[in-house]
Amino acid sequence: MEEKKRTITKVEDGEKVKKTVKKAEEVKEAVEEEVKETKKTKQVETLTKAEEKSKATTLRIVAAILWAFAIGFEVLAILFLFKKLYIPWLPQMWAMIICIVLDLICCVIAALLWKKASHLDPFKKTNNKVGFFILTQLGVIMAAICFIPLIVLVLASKDKLDKKSKIVVTVVAIVALLIAGLLGADFNPISAEEKAQAEDSITGDVFWTAFGHKYHLYGDCGSLKNSATLYNGSVTAAIDNGRGELCYFCANRAEKEQQLKLDGLNVEEGVEAATGE
């Protein structure tokens, strides 16, 4: 009986782990490639520190000017209320409503600019928590200043407006106050220390959506599956655009992958568990 030829292949130590790692990386690359093909991803450029500070300063100056105009329109409404101003062709109630609307427009734009500046160049929080709160929520505080005095004076005034006009003006002013307050509130404020920590710990690009408040480490994160358009850039760019909080699922997945790298074992299973596949 003829002896079969035999081929012997040497297997290096750790070869199985290397193959598993390679396969896991191929799976991850395939998933990311699929995400790129099925979703539009827009790259967002990162500003330098000097550019961030300069732009933030400009935005804050413009916001302050707009708040001054807002207070000015509030004063005009009060003058119309007490009939210190009079326009023959414009009824008192409508004159006040126009002033309130202009007040609201200036107040909202100012608050949005202030919030943008607060993410470009955040305020420090260490040993100044009260000051940090006031500065980050200045949009809400200014909304109160721009509307509450007017509302109080309208409600307290006697014989300045007829009953119907008084109700209409009060309702319009209260609605304006609520709108300005909600749009002026910063629900995800970030401090200078938190931004610096994120920039130091995250070096690669991150992802975010047009309306979300968080940034993501992975383009295939499950919470992004319903988003038709994604934006990606550095973590600095994400924070500058108001996304100051890391996604919980991405943070958990990154922690698991880091542990797998340290262990050097069960890499494929770990990646599948982290991605939920």
Q: What are the salient characteristics of this protein?
A:
single chain; 277 residues; mainly alpha; 2 domains; three-stranded mixed sheet; two-stranded parallel sheet; 10 helices; 64% helix
Tell me the layout of helices and strands:
Layout: H1 15-38, E1 40-43, H2 49-81, H3 92-120, H4 129-136, H5 138-156, H6 163-184, H7 192-201, E2 206-208, E3 214-215, E4 229-233, H8 235-240, E5 245-246, H9 248-263, H10 267-275
Helix pairs in contact: 1-10, 2-3, 2-5, 3-5, 3-6, 5-6, 9-10
Distance between the termini: 51 Å
Shape: elongated
Which percent bin holds the helix content?
Answer: 55-70%
Quaternary structure classification: single chain
Derived structural class: mainly alpha
Which strand order spans the largest sheet, edge to edge or round the barrel?
1-4-2
- Total of DSSP H or I helical runs spanning 4+ residues: 10
What is the count of structural domains?
2
| Share of residues in strands | 5-15%
Order of helices and strands: HEHHHHHHEEEHEHH
The count of DSSP E runs of length 2 or more, i.e. the number of strands, is 5
Query: What do the pLDDT scores average to?
Result: 82
Low-confidence parts: none
Can you summarize the main beta sheet? 3 strands, mixed
